[in-house]
Design a protein that fits this description.
alpha+beta; single chain; 3 helices; 41% strand; globular; five-stranded antiparallel beta sheet; SH3 type barrels; 130 residues; two-stranded antiparallel ribbon
């Protein structure tokens, strides 16, 4: 085991974004300290990329559009201030990095990305079983 992995296990750090894939919409709750007070701030958007896997320097990029202005945030996957990550919507995409979405409008993005529905997945598995 390399020293960085050993340090992560000793500190009890874990990948908060484990299993999150590009194209999914997630809500990241992050603790923000303002003076002596701390609060939780949510950032909800689409995952457009993940870099460096699960290693110590791994990051995940999340993009949202607010008032026709695109905002991207890069979160280190082992950031201690991340309180929780909730998957809001799972979608299927054909690429690992979705940087091309930066130039697309919301309507074009909805056309490109297909949402996985539980009914569709169940029907597909039944058809393949028969």
């Amino acid at each position: 085991m390399n020293p960085i992995s050993q340090l992560q296990t000793n500190l009890g750090l874990k990948d908060k974004f484990e299993g999150v894939r590009p194209g999914w919409t997630v809500r990241v709750n992050q603790k923000i300290k303002e003076g002596e007070k701390t609060r939780v701030q949510a950032f909800e958007g689409m995952v457009i990329g993940r870099k460096h896997g699960s290693e110590a320097g791994g990051t995940i990029t999340i993009r949202k559009v607010t008032d026709n202005i695109g905002v991207e945030k890069v979160f280190p996957i082992y950031l201690p201030s991340i309180e929780s990550v909730k998957v809001m919507k799972r979608t299927t995409v054909r690429r690992a990095k979705l940087y091309y979405l930066r130039e697309k409008s919301s309507k074009e993005i909805r056309k490109k990305i297909r949402a996985d529905k539980p009914e569709t997945i169940a029907k597909a598995s039944e058809e393949t079983a028969v």
